[in-house]
Amino acid sequence: MKHFNPAFEAIKPNLGSSFTCLRFSRNENIKSHVWHYHPEIELIFVCGGSGKRQIGSNISYFTEGDLILIGSNLPHCGMTNENTKNDYEIVIQFSQNFMGTEFWNAPEMSKILTMLEKAKSGIVFGEKVKKALKSKLEALSESSSLDKLMKLIDILDSLATTSDYKILNAGKYYLQTQKEDNDRINLIFNHVKDNFKNQISLEEVAGLATMTVPSFCRYFKKITNKTFTQFVNEYRITHSLKLLAEQPMSITEICFESGFNNFSYFNKTFKEHTQKSPSQYRKEFSNILA
């Protein structure tokens, strides 16, 4: 099977603007499902829908839309595809110095600057922030010129002052600052993405990385702050969350469809990740949607 490194995405600002703002209807932004990176900081708002996303080494499942801030050169994929069933998606992209370097030295910008530093590890914002900023993001996507810029600063300020957020990659995400590792680590990420339903041995991935198994284990932990087993299990559990929420399959079927070949191990791993059993998760999810 052929594997692809994350694609470098060249971004040009909208005509007459210092940054890019794009609005996609459902299924229109399918390329976001391809592993890619770019020097521009990216704010993504998905209105409605659910799906899997991978930001750096964090794999997670979102429901009822998403609001994510992705730092410069942080590889990512996911968000929307033909199964997401979102209403629309707004993508805002801007370079760190799109307003000039002196602009960020202003004391009024210090909180936003701190947030952009945190975004190097990826930030996901909570339900309250998503709801509060939905109309502002829609208005920004329809604005032009100075009004558009002022709306962006207002949105960034709101994001910088909320406590309703979570950092996606624990600790410093090593890959973000060590781009020479992109080819090797993303070959591994893509291999997991393509083969997580099958058994993946350490010998297999160490061979892909042209390393011995002990060297590979140390290398992977250094870059992702996770063991390879933790990373694969996280990918499988995230897939099982999606199936539990969206498919009328039995929990046993979901266990094997997600790459686990032992039902008791699946239950144990699921509970470690979610603090709930698969049946509890499905029941609570159904109650939320009822």
UniProtKB/TrEMBL annotation:
User: Which key words are in the record?
Assistant: DNA-binding, Transcription, Transcription regulation
Q: Which Gene3D superfamilies match?
A: Homeodomain-like (1.10.10.60), Jelly Rolls (2.60.120.10)
Q: Which residues form the HTH araC/xylS-type domain?
A: 186-284
> Keyword Glycoprotein, does the record have it?
no
Q: Which domain of life is it from?
A: Bacteria
Q: Which InterPro entries does the record cross-reference, listed alphabetically?
A: Homeodomain-like_sf, HTH_AraC, HTH_AraC-typ_CS, RmlC-like_jellyroll, RmlC_Cupin_sf, Tscrpt_reg_AraC-type_HTH
Entry's Gene Ontology molecular function annotations: DNA-binding transcription factor activity; sequence-specific DNA binding
Family annotation (PROSITE patterns): HTH_ARAC_FAMILY_1, HTH_ARAC_FAMILY_2
PANTHER family linked to this entry: ARAC-FAMILY TRANSCRIPTIONAL REGULATOR, TRANSCRIPTIONAL REGULATOR MTLR
- Under which name does UniProt file this protein? AraC-like DNA-binding protein
Q: Which organism is it from?
A: Epilithonimonas xixisoli
